[in-house]
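Example record

One chain of 341 residues, shown exactly as stored in the release files.
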Amino acid sequence: MARRAVALLSGGLDSTLAVKLILDQGIEVHALNFTSAFCTCDSGGKHKKGEQGGCRSEARRVAEAFGIPIKVLLKGLDYIDIVRNPRHGYGKGINPCVDCRIYMFKRAKEYMEEIGAEFAITGEVLGQRPMSQRRDTFRIIERESGLEGRILRPLCAKHLEPTIPERTGMVDRERLLSMLGRTRRPQMELAEDLNIGDYPCPSGGCLLTDKIFSKKVRDLLDHKESVTMKDLQALKLGRHFRYHGTKLIVSRNESENVRLRNLIQEGDTVLEPEGFPGPVALVCGGATNGTVEMAARLILRYSSRNTEKRGMVLVTRGGKTTSLEVANPPDDGTIEEIRVC
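Predicted structure tokens for this chain:
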């Protein structure tokens, strides 16, 4: 029976190198890629016409290049409970890094059992990230995911205790590496030696570590108990405000105008300028206490070509559209009072 492992493959440089090192030892690798609403990875590289960038497509590209199967899993609404109440706390933003790794390895363990894999591999490097890539957190992650001794980190393995696949001879420890710390140079040099090029997103990232974006997430979780995937997608769009307890989102460009219209949910109100160029605004439920009027005024505020700062705004709610005359965009003081981010 073939020796088999499951690899957490982001499509970034570290996980790509980890997979390559294990493949070179004749082990059958099955890739597992996680996506979420909080991924910052945007490759910016060259893609075929119609192909999107980002971690998912890069992971697929790496899997295809290596000839290995890949399964993509969404960190969905169950993951939001972890973001809301992480057992092991947050990093510099609202990032539950340790709990996130436990979550992913628990799902990796399920996949291992499904396909008969004997261990998991990851591109983590000891000391590279301050919260989740330390000896103590490695031990916590392994214990709480149920994978003690079965998570192999090929890039830094020689700084760690031998894992079960190393102790049993399934993996040759001498062919593993001893990378350490935050520098990326050893990975880049190894990629050159292994003839691995075109590796976008070398270190990956998570929007939950961004202090500004974290304000949007915290505001959402503080004001809404049952979060939807559209709520999460909207976090990446526009300017966010909170007025009398209701979320208002105002787009920043034409692309966001289109995307924001696609995120309307039951009970929402969408506003758009009539007869003048400007942003689209979304009132996320609760169209009372002047929220619609404030959203319309915000459209005037961020319409750079409406010099009169007055006009008509189309208001659509529940399939019914009406016109609203609006003037007097909010001043700087009001903007600062209601701005989330």
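Notes: The chain has two domains: 4-193, 237-338.
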